[in-house]
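If your schedule permits, I should be very grateful for your opinion on a structural question. What I wish to show you is a protein chain and, alongside it, a tokenised description of its three-dimensional fold. Would you kindly read the sequence against the tokens and tell me how you understand this chain to fold? Here, with my thanks, is the record as I have it:

===
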Amino acid sequence: MTENLKRCKWPTEDPLLIQYHDLEWGVPVHDDRKLFEFLVLEGMQAGLSWSTILKKRENFRRAFEGFDPVRVSEYSAKDVVRLMGDAGIIRNRLKIMGAINNAQRFLALQSEFGSFAAYIWRFVGDKPIRHHFRNIAQLPVTSRESDAISKNLRVRGFKFVGSTIIYAHMQATGMVNDHTIDCYRYNQV
């Protein structure tokens, strides 16, 4: 059991955050669909807590058809209306339109680089950056790499991809290991 293990402080006592921390956060992701899921979720989180997004994650999966970028890229105005009426997700028109736009741009990157993973992981030399932070106050909200990814994505037409959002994406998908050194997950990921 993981109840008595030392972990990063940010999950607090929230069981959903603890599960996310223990099973997903910081684990390297190379699966394009999972990378697209986190791109959408991080964009939806802008201005909100990650806990709010996790509570709605299954609703997002249903509403965005398992985060299939091909299907999302084909969404029409009718789909936007459908999504705006879905109380289970974040009903922000700009964020919904951004997710559709980003699906289209995502597919273009897949075509250009063979996969989105090949595109994004090249910014960190195809291996996770391993930080050595002692406490969560040391964790940055942006980095040189997130700045570069954000700039490149924006040039390519992506929305909701500021450097802070991208850094959170990098943490979520294991491009950086920001577990504190006293966390049991630090050496596992």
